[in-house]
Specification:
By secondary structure, the protein is mostly helical. It is 78% helix and 0% strand. The protein has helices spanning 3-25, 32-56, 68-92, 94-108, 114-135, 144-155. It is globular and about 60 Å long.
Length: 156
């Protein structure tokens, strides 16, 4: 199967999953408060399905693991990275934790194109700001340390 057909199949699966989800959950009749998590959950589920379809069709190959030490490192990283992100999110807030994660995690995984990493991190943060803060009018967490700094400044 050529790349154009693979993309077409992946898009068809994506569209079918979205339509099935909308029909099953009544997404269109949800209130604004329930709509946002439904959109995020649907997007994540669809991305996962598309990923699985691509792997099954041979479009994406799993990375080769060289030895047991590398396997342990990747397992520890897959468990530890979300935990570290959660602690950073709690302490430093969304913006600092997310920017640090977007820059550091690919570097740890040996992706060595710093200008591209900076561009991806910047565009991702801008996109998140536009969607969540400007469109959905959400306040993303500031973190305990940032809140303390802001509270200290206001008390003076």
């Amino acid at each position: 199967m050529d790349d154009a057909k693979k993309s077409g199949v992946a898009f068809a699966v994506l569209l079918a999953c979205a339509l099935i989800y909308i029909a099953a959950t009544g997404l269109l009749s949800r209130s604004a408060g329930g709509l946002f998590p439904a959109i995020i959950g649907t997007t994540g589920a669809i991305a996962a399905v598309v990923n699985v379809v691509q792997i099954l069709m041979g479009g994406v190959k799993a990375p080769e693991i060289r030895d047991a030490r590398e396997a342990r490192w990747l397992a520890a990283l897959s468990i530890g990275a979300p935990l570290v992100y959660a602690v950073l999110l709690w302490l430093l807030g969304f913006w600092i934790a997310s920017a640090a994660t977007l820059l550091v995690l690919p570097w740890i995984l040996e992706y060595r194109r710093p200008m591209l990493l900076l561009a991806i991190a910047a565009l991702t943060m801008i996109g998140i700001r536009l969607v969540f803060v400007e469109v959905f009018d959400m306040h993303l967490p500031q973190g305990l340390l940032i809140e303390r700094l802001l509270d200290t400044d206001q008390e003076d």
